[in-house]
Amino acid sequence: MWYLEPFDEIRRMQRQLDRLFRETKSPTFGDEMSPFVDIIDADKEIVVIADIPGVQKENISVNIKDDIMEIKASRGEEKEEKKRDGYWRRERSYNQFYRSIQLPVSVDEKRAKASFKNGVLEVRLPKLEIEKKRYIPIE
């Protein structure tokens, strides 16, 4: 006789839901509101690259406080259609995005540089020089 553990069915359902969400996830800014972000720990800097298609540079803001970087973006769209017999259709959509990223090391936000080209935001954050241990002679 086959015996089913009490939580086996719940685990099976959780795996099915996880698989369903993975298969339907879209990187599109307007659909998922969660663009892909890469964080690269280079030699002397941290590089953050975010895909934010369809957004104007003026509608993106990047802020750093302590070791957390925030990316905010928004886009609006208005469509208007006029046809014969007085038919008129107007649609508006507005999407916002917010992402908070814990940086792996302390950075010098005063020397940070950001660029935005073809829907890709690139932020270069120089690492703070952490003073190495120094030997102090005893007199």
Explain what the structure shows:
It is a single chain. This protein has 139 residues and is of the alpha+beta class. The chain has a single domain, classed as Immunoglobulin-like, CATH 2.60.40. Helix content is 15%, strand content 43%. The chain contains 2 helices and 7 strands. It has a 4-stranded antiparallel sheet, with no helix packed on it. A 3-stranded antiparallel sheet has the order 3-4-5, with no helix packed on it. A hairpin with a 2-residue loop joins strand 6 and strand 7. The radius of gyration is 24 Å and the shape is flat. 10% of the residues are buried. About 6% of the residues have low confidence.
List keywords for this structure.
139 residues, 3-stranded antiparallel beta sheet, 7 strands, 43% strand, 4-stranded antiparallel beta sheet, Immunoglobulin-like, 2 helices, alpha+beta
Topology readout:
Layout: H1 8-24, H2 29-32, E1 37-41, E2 45-51, E3 60-65, E4 68-82, E5 88-102, E6 113-117, E7 120-126
Antiparallel strand pairs: 1-2, 2-7, 3-4, 4-5, 6-7
| Structure summary, number of beta strands | 7
Mean pLDDT equals 81
Number of helices: 2
CATH topology: Immunoglobulin-like
**β content, as a range?**
35-45%
H-E order: HHEEEEEEE
Summarize the structure.
With 139 residues, the protein is of the alpha+beta class.
